[in-house]
Write a structure and sequence with these properties.
151 residues, alpha+beta, Alpha-Beta Plaits, two-stranded antiparallel ribbon, 4 helices
Length: 151
């Protein structure tokens, strides 16, 4: 069974930023009698774009990335980033695309699920962060196991 998750996207005055919160995790909510803050922050806010670039609603750094993908991922890329995503042919087997993403472990997990059919081309620091992420996982699984887990 797939549960639908609902999020509150709101302005946080203390950090002067837009944040998101899972509604099912909220406790002791109540209405307050305060003037609304942050109205200006939402004037150009695009909820559709926000949800396309945010993986699992986890925060991270916003980056414009370039991906090289196997042609069989066209549908996956369109489903994730929308119909307006630019797709440029590289050769008979690959295409390039650019996307705005929030770089987070959840984004890296999405990439890992696609295996070797997708590759971060740029920016270099995101590519290196992803490489560090997957190397840490590989190192964890390369440890010798005993009956209670890794040694």
């Amino acid at each position: 069974m797939n549960a639908t998750l609902h999020y509150l996207v709101a302005y946080e005055d203390a950090t002067d930023s837009i944040k998101h919160y899972r509604v099912d995790k909220m406790l002791n909510m109540h209405q307050v009698d305060m003037a609304r803050a942050g109205r200006k922050n939402f004037e150009d806010f695009d909820l559709a774009m926000f949800s396309k670039k945010t993986f699992g609603m986890f925060s991270g750094t916003d980056e414009r990335i370039r991906l090289k993908c196997s042609n069989d991922l066209v549908g996956v890329i369109i489903d994730r980033f929308g119909k307006d995503v630019m797709i440029m042919s590289v050769d008979d087997q690959h295409f390039l695309t650019h996307a705005n993403v929030t770089v987070s472990p959840q984004f890296f997990g999405w990439l890992a699920a696609l295996g070797t059919t997708v590759e971060i081309i740029s920016p270099t620091h995101v590519r290196e962060s992803y490489r560090t992420y997957i190397n840490k996982i590989a190192e964890h699984y390369n440890q010798t196991l005993d009956h209670d887990g890794p040694k």
